[in-house]
Every structure is written in C-alpha cells, then in structure tokens.
C-alpha cells in the first residue's frame, strides 16, 4: 500500500477508535463520576459543574488511551513494524538531557507565535465570527479542566493532560503520520512540516494554530535528530506539564496564560530564549543521527536494521 493510502487508512482507524473511546469514556464516567449524562454533547456544554469536569477528564483519558494510542498500535499490528520503523522506540543519545531545557526556553517563543496568530485573525472580522464561539467554548473547557483544588488533583491532571497526550499524540503524529508522509514525499522535512500541520489542525483551536504547529515541527526534528520517539514524548510532556503547573500555582488556566503572555512580550527575555534555544538545538544537531534515520525513513528498512546501522556507525 502506498504511504499516502496508509495515512488515509490510519485516519479511518483513528476516527473509528476515537468514536468508540468516547462511548467508553461516557460509560466509565457514569461509574467513576456518578454522571447521568449519556452523550458527548451534554458533557461538553455549559454550565460545567464538578460532575461534568470529572466526566471530561475521564473521556479525555479514554480518548488518548483507546483512541490515539490504540489506533497507533492497531496500525502497527496491521501494517507491520517496518511500516513505522518500530516507532523509533530505541534509546536516544545523551542529547535527550537537553530536551527539558529546550522545551523550557521554547515557551516564550511559542507564546510569541501565539500573539502573531491572534493578530492574523482580525477583531470583528469574518474569521473571528466563524472561529470565536467554538474557541471560547474550548477555552472554557480547558479552564475548568485545569482548575485544581489540591495537590492530588494536580498530580491527576499531570497524568491526564501531560503524560497521556505526550505519549499517545506522539505515537500518532510522529510515530505514524510523520513516518508515512516522509516516505510518501521521499522527504523528511515535508513529512515533519505536514504532520505538524495536521497535528495542529485536529485540535480545532485556530487561535493557537501557529504555535501548536511549530511545536509539532520541534517534536518532529527532535525525533529525527535523536533517533528516538522518547525525545519528542519528553518535550511534549514538559510543554503540557508547564501549562498544568502554571495553572495550578496561578489558580486558573487563564491567569497562567496571562503570565506567559506578559513574558512573551518582554523583548529581552524573548531574545535570550531564542539565543539559548538555538545554541542548545545546535548541540543536538552536532550529535545528530540524521544520516542513519534518513535512509531508514525513506528506504523503509526495519527498526532492527536501523539499530544495527547505528551501532556500526558509532563503533
């Protein structure tokens, strides 16, 4: 099967399992949260009380586990390990130790991209009228999800909002989609940027489309340069965990975002972050596995062959 057809086939798997996982999540929420709601629309509409918040968390976790992660491994089972290069689950180089710092110093840059994104949607224009209502509803859901009243609730949200999406979404977009698109176009860069575009688009939050796409690009290049999906998983986790942590200590997601916006508008901090991020990523590139990963991506060799080639080059 041509890689583009595999992407279409995978999209069908994802849609099927996401729909199934929503049903599983609703069923689980009725047991865990004592929720009387029987459909997704009733859970995702205001007003958001404690029962709805609990149900949203359960449904989100179900979607990540059964929908995204389940779809990735079902694709692996049906298409074989070779088709996704074993998800690049090998041990990364020591440059993975730089990932936490890269993620931290990327935040002001990502927030600056968010401000540019907002400027591209004119206030009072057609795009705002089209996008703003759903954006406001999603923002409200995010805020209630990230309203935490105890440390145990904070740990729970770290798992639901940071750990699960980091693993599940990276296996979907960097593990499957990026690999298939790179093979389809015979170009790793096209695979990274196109999968990042899809990654941002499926969130349906267009006021954050540009920064989310740039995050996807960052995650994609991390995988390619380190030769391991765990680098992008770690970066994704840290990005989400910082948002959860900011919301916990600030008291709400909106206050945390306001603090990040203020930091992004500081030109000295923005310049310093750009400089440090560039220098650190330059170190990652100097230790890159690109020469090994590229033929593995484009010639469709197995993950085992990739590891053998890596060992031979390093020796």
Please report the total strand number as a whole number. Answer: 0
The average pLDDT value, as a whole number, equals 85
Extract low-pLDDT stretches: 301-307
Instruction: Tell me the span between the first and last alpha carbons.
Output: 36 Å
Shape: globular
List the total number of helices.
Answer: 13
Radius of gyration, taken over Cα atoms and rounded to an integer in Å: 20 Å
Percentage of β-strand residues: under 5%
Please give the largest β-sheet.
none
Number of domains: 2
H and E string: HHHHHHHHHHHHH
Kindly name the structural category.
mainly alpha
Indicate the percent of residues in helices: over 70%
List keywords for this structure.
13 helices; 0% strand; mainly alpha; globular; 315 residues
What does this structure look like?
Helix 4 runs antiparallel to helix 8, helix 6 crosses helix 7 and helix 9 packs across helix 10. This protein is mainly α. It is globular, with a radius of gyration of 20 Å. The two termini are 36 Å apart. The protein has 2 domains: 79 residues, no CATH class; 231 residues, no CATH class.
Briefly characterize the structure.
The chain is mostly helical and 315 residues long. 79% of the residues lie in helices and 0% in strands. It is globular and about 55 Å long.
Secondary structure layout:
Blueprint: H1 3-32, H2 40-43, H3 50-79, H4 99-119, H5 126-145, H6 151-185, H7 188-201, H8 209-226, H9 229-250, H10 253-264, H11 267-286, H12 290-299, H13 303-314
Helix pairs in contact: 1-3, 1-6, 3-6, 4-8, 4-9, 4-10, 4-11, 6-7, 6-8, 6-9, 7-8, 8-9, 9-10
């Amino acid at each position: 099967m041509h890689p583009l057809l595999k992407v279409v086939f995978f999209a069908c798997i994802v849609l099927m399992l996401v729909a199934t996982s929503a049903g599983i999540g609703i069923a689980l929420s009725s047991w865990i949260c004592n929720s009387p709601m029987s459909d997704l629309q009733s859970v995702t509409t205001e007003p958001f009380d404690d029962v709805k918040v609990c149900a949203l968390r359960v449904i989100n976790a179900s979607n990540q586990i059964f929908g995204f992660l389940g779809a990735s491994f079902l694709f692996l089972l049906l298409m074989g390990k070779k088709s996704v290069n074993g998800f690049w689950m090998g041990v990364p180089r020591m440059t993975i130790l730089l990932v936490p710092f890269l993620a931290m110093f990327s935040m002001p840059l990502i927030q600056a991209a968010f401000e540019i994104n907002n400027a591209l949607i004119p206030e009072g224009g057609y795009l705002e009228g089209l996008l703003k209502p759903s954006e406001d509803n999603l923002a409200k859901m995010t805020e209630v999800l990230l309203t935490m009243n105890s440390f145990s609730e904070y740990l729970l949200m770290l798992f639901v909002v940071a750990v699960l999406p980091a693993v599940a979404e990276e296996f979907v977009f960097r593990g499957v989609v990026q690999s298939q698109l790179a093979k389809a176009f015979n170009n790793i860069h096209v695979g990274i940027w196109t999968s990042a575009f899809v990654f941002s688009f499926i969130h349906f939050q267009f006021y954050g489309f540009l920064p989310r796409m740039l995050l996807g690009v960052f995650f994609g290049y991390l995988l390619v340069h380190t030769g391991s999906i765990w680098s992008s998983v770690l970066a994704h986790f840290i990005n989400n965990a910082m948002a959860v942590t900011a919301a916990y200590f600030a008291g709400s997601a909106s206050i945390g975002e306001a603090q990040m916006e203020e930091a992004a508008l500081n030109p000295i901090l923005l310049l310093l972050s750009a400089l440090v991020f560039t220098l650190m990523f330059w170190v990652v590139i100097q230790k890159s596995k690109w020469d090994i990963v590229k033929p593995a991506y484009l010639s469709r060799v197995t993950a085992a062959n990739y590891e053998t080639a890596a060992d031979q080059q390093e020796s």
